[in-house]
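Progress report, Aim 2. The chain analyzed during this reporting quarter is listed below.
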Amino acid sequence: MSDVEIVKSKPMREPDEDSLRLAEALVFASAEPVTPRGLAKVLPDDLDAGAVLAALRARYAGRGVELVDAANGVMFRSALDLAPRLRKVIESPRRLPRVAMQTLSIVAYHQPVTRPEIEHIRGTALSQQTLDSLLELDLIAPKGRRESPGRPTLWGTTAAFLAHFGLKDIRELPRREDLLLETTPPRSTPEILPVDLQPPSDSDGGDKPRL
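Predicted structure tokens for the chain:
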């Protein structure tokens, strides 16, 4: 006989009420999206974490709070169709300053990206205060260094960024082309320009445009 002991894998049980309650409590209490691996740590060995999360998702489907994918895990969020009605009674969190949103957008679409590259895209210098605010909110994080003179730090978005914007992964970002409000610059109307901005007339005797 062989000395090697053949161990048969234990059959997996169907998710039961106790496992669903446990998963529900973990997702509710967790500050970060819950991954199947994280849930597996608190489940019995004969329960599949993915199956438990799928059953929990089905239980909450169509309710006021739903289980949604975010940053390689799941979290509870208010149903999207209720959001407009909730805005009437729930105060929205303070929005990031415009410069911080610009910086965050550049990092999201060009990551990994260095600070000089961010400044080049924006066309202006980036203050340390703006960078620090995004770091404190855990929306961006260092992603190594570029192999170039000075070895500048590379920046990228975080799992907290995905969770904050309700994204499963970075590929769910809208296309940059879809964010453009205009495809051509607006045309100026000469009649409404101040006199000192009007083009010079062809002759000194021409009438000046009225304001």
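The chain has a mean pLDDT of 79. DSSP finds nine helices and five strands in the chain. These observations will guide the mutagenesis work planned for the next reporting period.
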